[in-house]
Specification:
The chain is of the alpha+beta class and 428 residues long. The chain folds into three domains: 191 residues, no CATH class; 75 residues; 148 residues, Histidine kinase-like ATPase, C-terminal domain (Heat Shock Protein 90), CATH 3.30.565. Helices cover 59% and strands 11% of the residues. The chain is built from eleven helices and nine strands. The strands form three sheets. A five-stranded mixed β-sheet has the order 4-6-7-9-8. The chain has a two-stranded antiparallel ribbon with strand order 1-2. A hairpin with a 3-residue loop joins β6 and β7. The longest helix is centred in the middle third of the chain and has 81 residues.
Length: 428
Amino acid sequence: MKFSEVFTSKDNIQLDKKTLVILRWIAIVGQFVTISIVYFFLDFKLPFFYCSVIIFVGVLTNIYLQFRVRKNQLSNLHSTIYLLYDLIQLAALVYFTGGITNPFTILLIVPAIVSSTFLSLRSTLNLSFITIVVLLTLTFYHLPLPHSGDLHFHVPNYYLYAIPTAVIIGLIFLTYFGARFGIESRKRTEALNKLELILAKEHELESIGVQAAAAAHSLGTPLSTITVVAKELEKEIGSNPKYSNDINLLLTQTKRCGDILKKLSQDTLAEDSFLEDVKLDELLNKIARSYREISNKKLSVIVKKNEINPRIERTLEITYGLRNFIGNAVKYSKSLVEISLESNNKITEVKVCDDGPGFPPDVKALLGEPYIRSGDNNISSKSGLGLGTFIGKTLLERMKANVTFDRCPKHNGAMVTIQWQTKSLLFI
């Protein structure tokens, strides 16, 4: 991810209420325990009453959030308001306990970091700016921390100014990396959601196909009965013009229905069923044939000298995954796509090569990740190189395949290698 992408993202993910409530309870308990230990056991005469009031208000706000707010997901605005309050509450505690010299000052950056991970960029920038203002204010304006006994603690001015500088630098770096990982997580989640949607649609189509096949077989028997009865009526009535035309029409339409059901049954069972086992070379040929019908590019399937010809379960994952990579090769090739199959008792390997431009060097290491971008102007960011490759790789890896990307040595284009342990394939 480029640096600029973090600051141009429009992602806006809501913050889980339970997560925020737990984080705030941890902070509240930690604040009270720390203040109590410092006041009662270390004998620092800090304004305990004011500090307790500030913490108590935090308790009330968190109780309200936990029991009165009904939504499980807080909007970006409401999340920002709660984080802003937490920042101000902690700043007030730090003000009464030594200001910038308080070692717990570092915790002031937590709300901005949480925002960078879960909330919009605008909210993160606003919280970061307010945090910087708070840090600078506490540097010059705060109550001195009363020390116990004869303990004297003096901080040189250069050190006093170095503390907020270091915290601000840490805030900038941590906020940036929080935003970066937050955006990557959101993109991955989005890609996985799209993958699940695709699988759901494919399974729905599969279900429809199975139902259609079942209907075709179920209707075959009554249709045959109608045909037999119609032919018997034709013999009985003979050439009576009053009924012969109707009987001929009945026989014609019955035959038409039979042809439709036969075709439906054959297509469903032979082409669209994902419940059968099939030889891997046959599946590759079927996929290649489907692309030959819609493309003028040459697709060849080469079956090398194999010790075995594996039969696999024609699963949705394998079918769609192979189709995805073959389709990408057809899309980016100049004129040729070569699909090779090699199998022995240990390894079954499929290679998809094309004579296109190949994988751009700047994205080769990122292939298989969702939403990648190439600096190559010949490859559009919306081409599907990122998400499509991610989906195909994920589907095949579900079926215990190992997917790698390289340059095709024969045609100097892209090469995708899909490799299984032969014993992991369900049918041999």
